[in-house]
């Protein structure tokens, strides 16, 4: 089970930190990621982290502004979002994948959290 939290309303230029806690049955996983979906738009990749080597991946639209990290001991993943823009407004989902695969591709992920809303006002 994945529980995302940390969303909220923030002004443009502000910051938020999202968290995603994994609980329940423990199992081996390959990595985790964040996706977002704005009203009327497709779900899109935001960032991902691989447990092998700690490799991180970012969408071009968030590079330099967002940072993904994890606390493996706490089974928690984070997304630090700085310099937020109104176009970052969306429902943010965390996801976990058991196998290797394209980290940018949502079907690669096996488990999904319920989403946390991020709203950035101009």
List keywords for this structure.
122 residues; mainly beta; seven-stranded mixed β-sheet; four-stranded antiparallel β-sheet; globular
Description:
- It is a single chain.
- This protein has 122 residues and is an all-beta fold.
- It is built from no helices and eleven strands.
- The strands form two sheets. Strands 2, 4, 5, 6, 9, 10 and 11 form a seven-stranded mixed sheet that branches.
- The radius of gyration is 13 Å and the shape is globular.
For the secondary structure, the number of strands is 11
Q: Which class do the helix and strand fractions yield?
A: mainly beta
Give the C-alpha Rg. Answer: 13 Å
Low-confidence stretches: none
Largest sheet: 7 strands, mixed
How many angstroms does the end-to-end distance come to?
A: 34 Å
pLDDT averaged over residues: 93
Q: What is the helix fraction of residues, given as a range?
A: under 10%
Q: Approximately how much beta-strand content do the residues carry?
A: over 45%
Q: What overall geometry do the principal axes of the alpha carbons give?
A: globular
**What is the overall number of helices?**
0
Q: Sketch the topology as an H/E string, one letter per element.
A: EEEEEEEEEEE
């Amino acid at each position: 089970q994945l529980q995302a939290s940390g969303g909220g309303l923030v002004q443009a230029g502000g910051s938020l930190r999202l968290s995603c806690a994994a609980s329940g049955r423990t199992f081996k996983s390959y990595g985790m990621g964040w996706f977002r979906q704005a009203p009327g738009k497709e779900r899109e990749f935001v960032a991902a982290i691989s447990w092998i080597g700690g490799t991180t991946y970012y969408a071009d639209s968030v590079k330099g502004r967002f940072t993904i990290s994890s606390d493996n001991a706490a089974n928690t993943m984070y997304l630090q979002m700085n310099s937020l823009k109104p176009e970052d407004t969306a429902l943010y989902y965390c996801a976990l994948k058991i196998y290797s695969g394209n980290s940018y591709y949502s079907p690669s992920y096996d488990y999904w959290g319920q989403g946390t809303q991020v709203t950035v006002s101009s």
